[in-house]
């Protein structure tokens, strides 16, 4: 009896030891994915900082990197995998101050930052007439409202914060909000977030680079996307409509994903499922979008928004704009497409939505479970994001971040480790792309030459697209086979009865 007890105890200890080793391996992997690219970029960035003769930037950057490394060391040698509430709050503060320090140390992408500063200053004095002024502006009012809001708050409290950091603050705060919402969604789906998941999201190098160092608006848009789908999970129907409308007036690229929401509405109305809830979403969407449309409409320009989208669509008629995709691999960076521009994009978008319809058609089977609906909706967003980035023309280096976001949310909903791995690879490839572009832009170079390392990143992006489509297809076929098996069993049981 004692021998049996000791054997069981030994086996339990052995299992625990194996589990702990797996946890440490995962944490180490996530830390390396986070720290090494950021450290590598800062090392390369050092040359630019020395040229600028601003030693305070070097000191702040070094202290920040050391802080991240020490925090990662602490995570690596902690025994528990699941994160406690206090530790999560501590991680949020750490992630925020890391971004704040880097945001203050580095001015950002010269062209983008200067545009945002100019628009912010104009918007803070004459917000609703901004599209009537004779200035270049290729952003929708949703983000300009945020810039204006932050500028006015800074003026009211007499803050001495620089404009460079002020335009980054919405995106720095958005990064933290993304972490809170995604990890909160994980808990809502039945499992507590782990340290490695928290590290991957909160210390994601691509997000840090975009929000704190580049100064772009992609983090803010990503936050709105997460808020939209979290609102759907929590059945906050009025908020769903409001956020969808605000997104449509914030980033022109959201037009690629907006049909997903329309599909969700049509599908549920067709099923006559939760009709009142869907009508609430559509009404709130119509009110907010109508309000924004007429508030910012230039004098007697009733069709100003369609014209704006057409102008943006034709702004970059190149195969690729520093995006390491199939066109970059073919040596077509900044090469004009000619008359093929719109044709290629329409064909690719049509293919993407055909795949989405197949995905929804096979996967849903008229289900009323809105979580299952969201799972396939998010997978559809991932397919659109990855296909558009790799195959549509005029893509910028940053747009793969939306594919990463959809991939991460799919992982949260279905808890399949393959989706987490894909999201980490996409994040790493995105980081390598935007870091190269930002590094050159700080020396006023805006054309990325064709290099072998960049070519490998482009090939890797294409490979991850093929692998992702294979995983989705195999999962769908397996799901279809299971459905057939279940229906056959049901028929057999009915015959027996």
TrEMBL record:
<feature type="transmembrane region" description="Helical">
    <location>
        <begin position="254"/>
        <end position="272"/>
    </location>
</feature>
<keyword id="KW-0812">Transmembrane</keyword>
<feature type="transmembrane region" description="Helical">
    <location>
        <begin position="220"/>
        <end position="247"/>
    </location>
</feature>
<protein>
    <submittedName>
        <fullName>Uncharacterized protein</fullName>
    </submittedName>
</protein>
<feature type="transmembrane region" description="Helical">
    <location>
        <begin position="278"/>
        <end position="296"/>
    </location>
</feature>
<feature type="transmembrane region" description="Helical">
    <location>
        <begin position="308"/>
        <end position="327"/>
    </location>
</feature>
<feature type="transmembrane region" description="Helical">
    <location>
        <begin position="398"/>
        <end position="414"/>
    </location>
</feature>
<feature type="transmembrane region" description="Helical">
    <location>
        <begin position="374"/>
        <end position="392"/>
    </location>
</feature>
<keyword id="KW-1133">Transmembrane helix</keyword>
<keyword id="KW-0472">Membrane</keyword>
<feature type="transmembrane region" description="Helical">
    <location>
        <begin position="339"/>
        <end position="362"/>
    </location>
</feature>
<feature type="transmembrane region" description="Helical">
    <location>
        <begin position="58"/>
        <end position="76"/>
    </location>
</feature>
<feature type="transmembrane region" description="Helical">
    <location>
        <begin position="452"/>
        <end position="472"/>
    </location>
</feature>
<feature type="transmembrane region" description="Helical">
    <location>
        <begin position="23"/>
        <end position="43"/>
    </location>
</feature>
<feature type="transmembrane region" description="Helical">
    <location>
        <begin position="88"/>
        <end position="111"/>
    </location>
</feature>
